[in-house]
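Students often ask why inverse folding is considered easier than folding. One informal answer: many sequences map to the same fold, so there is more than one right answer. In these notes we will look at a single instance of the problem. The structure comes first.
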């Protein structure tokens, strides 16, 4: 005759194993969220405790800018500069009739993402994930634009001649030149916008904003040592704006 107690024990054990399995699955499902939360908190910490910049004697120097969107930042510099021949480097965005007061915006990132995402509305999850995985070449995106002096998304930067030279060197060092030493333009871009093959691979720890933060560091400006997000770049500049 079957023992009723053994059936109760077996049922209890099955329920226990099921409960343990569900808890394990819940924990595994929470891991990506916890990792993302930890990543965000670390980024916020670095942005709130940035590396300080040095004193800049920039009164007689041309104004530079840092322009930011929700997810991306650019360094913006005059298209005419005695320290560098931008027209020789980037002829596609510096035609002869480009106004002398025009500026150039420089940003680094995943080439395919740049090519396939002319506006944020065109963003596709698959393209973004491929970029984060470092599956594509990277590019320097160069855009000619009007002086952004009245653009609320652009912060003026007080940068002296030494700092400006460092920014130029950072931009030039990011390019992947051909055997003749010339910047290699890649397809894409609208209007006075062009993409040039760059060094490095995009990833969660090496984003477009990290590239800008490293540019600011080279120029002697306040910056987050780890800067995956656009706020990682803009927050440290709260005390570094010009008046």
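Output (designed amino acids):
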């Amino acid at each position: 005759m079957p023992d009723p107690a053994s059936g109760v024990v077996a049922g209890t054990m099955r329920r226990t194993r099921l409960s343990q399995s569900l808890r394990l699955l819940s924990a595994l499902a929470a891991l990506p969220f916890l990792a993302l939360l930890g990543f965000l908190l670390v980024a916020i910490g670095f942005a709130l405790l940035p590396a300080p910049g040095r004193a800049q004697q920039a009164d007689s120097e041309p104004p530079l800018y840092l322009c930011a969107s929700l997810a991306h930042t650019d360094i913006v510099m005059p298209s005419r500069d005695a320290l560098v021949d931008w027209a020789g480097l980037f002829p596609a965005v510096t035609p002869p009739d480009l106004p002398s007061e025009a500026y150039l915006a420089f940003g680094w990132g995943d080439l395919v993402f740049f090519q396939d995402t002319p506006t944020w509305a065109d963003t596709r999850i698959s393209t973004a994930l491929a970029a984060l995985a470092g599956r594509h070449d990277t590019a320097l995106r160069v855009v000619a634009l009007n002086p952004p002096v009245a653009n609320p998304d652009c912060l003026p930067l007080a940068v002296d001649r030494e700092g400006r030279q460092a920014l130029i060197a950072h931009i030039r060092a990011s390019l992947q030149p051909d055997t003749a030493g010339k910047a290699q333009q890649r397809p894409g871009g609208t209007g006075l916008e062009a993409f040039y093959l760059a060094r490095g691979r995009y990833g969660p720890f090496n984003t477009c904003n990290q590239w800008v933060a490293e540019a600011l560091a080279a120029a002697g400006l306040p910056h987050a040592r780890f800067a995956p997000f656009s706020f990682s770049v803009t927050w440290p500049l709260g005390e570094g704006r010009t008046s």
